[in-house]
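worker-03 picked up job from queue 'complexes'. Input manifest follows; two sequence lines, order preserved.
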Amino acid sequence: MKQLLTLLALFVIFNVSAQQTMSLKDAVLGASSYLKPKMPVQIKWKDDRHYVMVKENHLIAFNVQNNDSTDLISLSELNAALKEKGMKNAVLFPVFSFINESLIWFQTDNHLVIFNLDRKSVDSSFDYPEKAEHLDYNAVQGMLAYTIKNNLFVKGISVDQQITDDMEEHIINGAAVHRNEFGIEKGTFWSPKGHQLAFYHMDETMVGDYPLVDYMAREAKLVNIKYPMAGMTSHQVKLGIYNLDNKQTVYMKTGLPADHYLTNISWAPDEKTIFIAELNREQNDMKLNQYDASTGDLIKTVLEEKDSKYVEPVHPIVFSATNANRFYYQSRQDGWNHVYSCDMPDGKVTQITKGNWEVTELLGFDEGDKNLIFEATRENTLERQLYRINTHSGKTDRLTPDAGTHLGLLSPDKQNIIDRWTSTNVPGRVDLISSKGILLKTIAVAKNTLKDIDLGENTVFTIKADDGITDLNCRMIKPNNFDPSKKYPVIVYVYGGPHAQLVNKTWLNDARWWQYYMASKGYISFTLDNRGSDNRGREFENVTHRQLGVIETADQMKGIDYLKSLPYIDAARIGVHGWSFGGFMTLNLMLKHPETFKVGVAGGPVVDWSMYEVMYGERYMDTPEENPKGYENSNMLNYVDNLKGKLMLIHGVEDQTVVMQQSIQFLKKCIDLDKQVDFFVYPTHEHNVRGNDRLHLMEKVSNYFLDNL
Amino acid sequence: MKQLLTLLALFVIFNVSAQQTMSLKDAVLGASSYLKPKMPVQIKWKDDRHYVMVKENHLIAFNVQNNDSTDLISLSELNAALKEKGMKNAVLFPVFSFINESLIWFQTDNHLVIFNLDRKSVDSSFDYPEKAEHLDYNAVQGMLAYTIKNNLFVKGISVDQQITDDMEEHIINGAAVHRNEFGIEKGTFWSPKGHQLAFYHMDETMVGDYPLVDYMAREAKLVNIKYPMAGMTSHQVKLGIYNLDNKQTVYMKTGLPADHYLTNISWAPDEKTIFIAELNREQNDMKLNQYDASTGDLIKTVLEEKDSKYVEPVHPIVFSATNANRFYYQSRQDGWNHVYSCDMPDGKVTQITKGNWEVTELLGFDEGDKNLIFEATRENTLERQLYRINTHSGKTDRLTPDAGTHLGLLSPDKQNIIDRWTSTNVPGRVDLISSKGILLKTIAVAKNTLKDIDLGENTVFTIKADDGITDLNCRMIKPNNFDPSKKYPVIVYVYGGPHAQLVNKTWLNDARWWQYYMASKGYISFTLDNRGSDNRGREFENVTHRQLGVIETADQMKGIDYLKSLPYIDAARIGVHGWSFGGFMTLNLMLKHPETFKVGVAGGPVVDWSMYEVMYGERYMDTPEENPKGYENSNMLNYVDNLKGKLMLIHGVEDQTVVMQQSIQFLKKCIDLDKQVDFFVYPTHEHNVRGNDRLHLMEKVSNYFLDNL
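worker-03 finished. Artifact:
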């Protein structure tokens, strides 16, 4: 209880000169646009001594050591130079990267431009097709990889090569595979010096067609997708390497069974070998395999990691800049995500970071790998602080003194860090600190865009999980003009699934602004990160294995117990809302605790995990054949009979993540059992309702609580 | 006003010993099952002197002239005889037809059985495949036509022939065509003596696939249908004639354009020629063409009917039993549906019935075509009475003295009529009358199953249409324990489209029992048959041509004016509900009169006629290309901006009549314009929610009014 009070005191947001409450439009649309705290963009390192940013359409360089600044180029100057080469104006300063101190490259329209900042003119440029997707530029060779439909191409100033020529549209080259699980975000991987291009090749022809319908066409139109469901035949992925010199593609001999996962591709610095974190379909055995890039032969398995539940590789290995035989990798093998080094060829592994906390980001090494600079949850699971650890002694220094969530960008010489951070009362701030943690200067401070808006009190605290041991992070937002002698209704906003953490010490404690809107309407908002959620270690997450929803729900109910213990809570008026896994959780809570929850809104909910996809589904649930009991227990169709409160399901008609059949089958079961339930769909929307339509969605959700809770 | 009061007095339903109100279950499920008035079934003529009926599983014959009855056979005796031949028990007495006084035929399981009633044994039988559909038996030859998938077959005791062998599944033989418009209910037509079988052959290959999705499958499954939309390429139909003797099929040379409509097939008595009412795709020119059945050659156009709006043939011609050169046909050519005779070969046409009323059914002729016995709206558009007209003098006698809705079955010798009828206070009654209209005896009287249920007062009356001239039939149901000094909310139940009449002098004035349920909850129910609805003549219907929804809505608003003139109506609480065309009307009323309607529930609504099918759509609206203004004016998407009240759309996910894209596009427009709207779907259901799920539906509809109106 002592800890709880301390946190309360620390995290309370004070509003002194409040005048108005938050409108729904402000909450839904303003948060990502006109009320978003304004910060300079494209803050990055130009060289050891200078960082740059784009401010009011000027690219400005700042000296690290003093307050000198140089206006490198304005957008209008840039556009004048583009015009000279017959290119169209850029509306915003293009997203660019430095090639060296003078040269940057960027894409504009369908031009790849190398631009000389000193001369304020285009150094060189080439075009690529308008329909090109999955652009991936290698600045060393000046080569752009891209795809057209399902095939892969490479282009440079004097190069124009087609790498694959698959006629079958369901064989896809150069795109992200495995439904973007395992940290996969792209499908092409340039070798360090740009002589070779590794790429994913995915064969989906053996996966059945899944029918989506475009209802907005004059006549509704079939749009087939490939959506392998848990336990069903899955796609097959290979890794090809295209050699730009001999124009040959070699496929790595990754073997069988072909429905394994090829993840976290890394090139060796010498470009001769490539590393793949290969995971079996069962997801309990990961081998880091090294292949000969020129023959595709397996050289050896460098590392192997097994787990009785699952192994989930999400970080590619990183080679040492000073020792080509050493790489660093991240693993949760000791229960927490930590950094290890591995020395080749003997495979000697050394754990670098250690403790009951997690490394969340590697910034880099200084002084020839002497120190590792990283981001972690070491202080507090709500925060992200930057640290520097001596890789030999293990001595660790915290570099960021301010509580909050820090994101660091190490300078090329590893001497300085641009520290972008927010905290409960800090909407946004950028500091320059030395890699020893000394504050050099404050680069930017965002204004509080909500200072004139009266916000309900926002507190973060912990309660015990259902195991009686684990602390769970909670956030509560009280209604405006809170009066502790009154009784208030509560809306639990829930996600609860893996890979997410809703309570964070970012600005406003990471609250969705909709919660402030509901606070202005007299509703308490409550959110709890149950076991199964992210950044709390392996066991905290995988305790839910083969039984999704069970422990998560038990933990959420501890939150309800806590709420009910408060004198100002109206226990007869508790509602719950969540989307995706949070929709699944909404159903769990509504159906397993019908006496507790009066109103629920489940968006894009998983209803039955056997209708969910292979990669995510089988990791947490195994297959329906292997775990029939678990699937049965987590199948919301089996709990419909308990439904008592008002429940609305909402689904995007084009949802390709949680397919709409999940909701439709739930409705059918409700109808079969004569249970009234409400439903709404968002045509044209996929798994999330984005853009302006989100205002309509949140008005619908809000009205449902306002009318029924 | 005088007339109104008279009708009030006549049609009021009195409830004396009322005890309880109608439950929703009684209203929705009871009406068609446990509360349905019990009547003997299969009442039909055995011979000139006897009629039969099935009563308590006994087939009983009754003598016309006295009260003698004969128990012909019981179900258990029948089953014993079936068992002897190795056939399964029938659960209910099979639906049968007389071949002669002793023999009947029926289908049971997949057996066609000819049964001897005298000997109480199977006379003969043969089997047909279990998957057979579209069964059509010709008793003269003992031949059964049926289809398997898209092909046509014939079977008899010693015959087993495949007539068509189309491999392409979208070429369909022997099934109803043209989406069952134009009175088409079947796809096979036996020649009178059974030597030839005419059949529809429909080629849908040129119509695009329309995607429906079966969301109840383990993985959602595509179910393509053919749904040609107004103005789009339509299917093509031919009429084949298969000769059982020479086993040859000849197609009638019906010519081009091939997307015309072949309707109302009739054989000449000599089997040598066949008649087709052929309608052009524009539906404004109908030719009755006579074809040579053996060659397919067009012999001649016997009749032609044109109309600037549309011609809608729905009754096949009927040949005289005494003069093979004369046939009778029905037409609305003088503005009302009347009977004409046509003498071949000179084509002389004589109008038989005449007047500002409509013939609704032909029963037959007596005394060698001297008299025509028919059913008509002559007395009153709310009623169906039986009449006998002297075809020479035109002298007309009414045969049924009792007000109500009569359905007659003429005896083989044309001397007697079984008169089945209901009326406002008569749940069901069967009389035997002579063909001169003399009541011979009362065969059966149904008990009032609702006598212990307290029903709101149900009145029928007329008001003037928006043209100030036409009388429109209305029905109002007042709440139980009506107190004229109080103010009540109203729910308008609407259909409003062609081919339907909601206010009828049948039992309870044809009220949906749901209206009594809502009456028990304190809601007035109101229904008006606007112009455009059925049985009121050509102009009453086709005044809506090219502008669906406009005049219908204006007439409905006259009903609203009337309601508002009543002291006991709460004009601030008016709701509207309808399905299909009634869903379209609900949208019209909600969106064109947002100040009037507070709550609406539109089921399976047409939103935009350009998304409706060719046959029905183009009849009333022409094509979108021909009538862009009309389509625009009737497109509910163009009125969404007016939405003010609470509106719910409901759609069957598998709706093949009004496709769900209609509702989905409406929702999209609501979202675009930030209008809140509610929605629900019934998975697995087509255009209507049937079976037990209907209770869920009507509970949802009821709740919407109870909660919001």
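worker-03 released lock.
Residues 550-565 of chain A form the longest helix (16 residues).
Confidence is low (pLDDT under 50) at residues 1-10, 14-18 of chain A.
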